[in-house]
């Protein structure tokens, strides 16, 4: 039996009610000491490819690729799986003090976004210079949205014992980006170490990124972003600023991705990949429709709904 005919009026009504285009997924993932030894494990690389290929932009932290071999291996594995021109990467210099250094890496889907600009935040605030152990490496990407054509991403992996100070200092980064590019639409994301003794609950009110209006914490304080069964900590976060960006967030899409359950891994197998879950959020290519906010559309909807 064939499908019933769809009247043009009803089709137009559906187009009005439903945004066109697949959501745009942004992820952040602490790869836990990702370097050549981890890149040599086929099972680990297979899982990383599955995780990253779910994302339009993946912001990777704790990439300790001093020799510059692990990330090319990961990109090659990604290209073999998804396609030779599917993803591109932007890699920061090695950041940190002493022997412990890591890179921030943006891996992005070439067909859905492009890099517009990037810069390294100068950690020279006169009130407290050198507050970041690993200063933010900031990137601006295009989005498939007429409402919000581009978005600034700020990755951050804090030092646990300095988590409170570093999260607070991200507000200074916000001010710097606003002065630098004149934009309000900014997403902060990564392993903030924002729980389990590193940030006391009574101190949240003193942290400007949490206290100042306009910042929306999409991953809540009670969410578990850790792989180990015996931990329950909201270390990894996504914070957005800008009303246009907030309007595009798909409801309930901001969450950890439980890759062990999804891919049928034991805890031991998952820990070979990372002790963190990735966190992710989806953005619509068009804003959510609020009929009360758009009364001019209501007569048209009623007219079209009554036709056919």
Automatic annotation (TrEMBL):
GO biological process terms on file: DNA catabolic process
Transmembrane portions of the chain: none
CDD domains per record: DNase1
UniProt-annotated location(s): Endoplasmic reticulum
Protein keywords: Disulfide bond, Endonuclease, Endoplasmic reticulum, Glycoprotein, Hydrolase, Nuclease, Signal
GO MF, one example: deoxyribonuclease I activity
Gene Ontology CC annotation, any one: nucleus
Top-level division of the source organism's lineage: Eukaryota
Main subcellular location: endoplasmic reticulum
Signal peptide extent: 1-23
Disulphide bridges: 196-233
Keyword flag Nuclease: yes
Keyword Manganese carried by entry: no
Endonuclease/exonuclease/phosphatase domain residues: 28-276
Active site annotation, chain numbering: 102, 157
UniProt similarity note: Belongs to the DNase I family.
The name this protein goes by in its record: Deoxyribonuclease
